[in-house]
Amino acid sequence: MTHGDTTGDFEKSEGWLDWYDGPSTPTFRLPEGSVDAHCHVFGPGGQFPYAPQRKYTPCDASADQLFALRDHLGFDRNVIVQATCHGSDNRALVDALQRSAGRARGVATVRRDVTDEQLAELHEAGVRGVRFNFVKRLVDRVPTDSLEEIVAKISPLGWHVVIYFEAEDLPELYDFFSSIPTDVVVDHMGRPDVTKDPDGPEFELFLRFMRENTNVWTKVSCPERLSVTGPRALDGEQHAYRDVVPFARRVVEEFPDRVLWGTDWPHPNLKDHMPDDGLLVDYIPQIATTPELQQKLLVDNPRRLYWPEGA
Ligand SMILES: O=C(O)c1cc(C(=O)O)oc(=O)c1
Fold first, then answer.
1. Catalytic: 264?
2. For residue range 259-295, what is the model confidence (pLDDT) as tens digits?
3. Transmembrane residues, as ranges (predicted)?
4. N or C: less crowded end of the chain, CB within 10 Å?
5. What is the SS3 assignment for 52?
6. Residue with CA nearest ligand 1 atom 6
């Protein structure tokens, strides 16, 4: 099913794939209190317009639809990450946080001229981090001195920095990333090329980055984005994305206290298929193979980072 060709006054990017309606009920039972630590809301465009400088126009994906998915899959909470199609206009994110009854935290995008008052408002709404994006097809590069200014403004609030980049860009960005004094969370394992050897130099550089910087965490998410050979999380497939498993499992086992997992719903910019989110949850035991690792990945770690006050 599609969710309409237009979203408010907006026309979806050509070839846009809509999120999967009617996901299956996962076979894997999530531990109590599990957090979907990477997901987004899109618009709705009629209410929260997409940013003029966006690189894509999505279908709508509202907070209510996200919360329905949360309940269906068996998650307790969400971490909602500002999507690039909203630029630094965090209104859709803030609205979702405010309607979550404390069950969602947020990661915002801010500009260097953000004021302390604006940051305080975001904090009040539940924002606990900012996202810096280095993926060229999604954003224009922001100079590092701007980013350093933002870090200086957000660190007194105890926030962290989420970074999104592709593996081939890590060598160039390594020193800047290592200089960030707050906690740092890497989206989607720094997007390894999974056709390469998980023991080879490219992924080893990422592992070294995590070893050398004990403030760095990562999301072992997005197998549907990274996989080349699948099989896809569709049609009841219980062992999806096998080519990504050795990478994610390696990270979960070496850094069990610094990993997070999220659905990435509504899966922006997928080109060849849209996964069944129920089957994506069934992927988790392939990468976190014991109840202890699952508890850390899904409950203890995200709560330590996003709900450190408990409850
Ligand atoms: O790879 C992507 O296209 C992508 C895009 C966004 C975003 O637009 O914010 O977020 C993600 O986590 C992944």
1. yes
2. 999 999 999 999 999 999 999 999 999 999 999 999 9
3. none
4. C
5. coil
6. 83
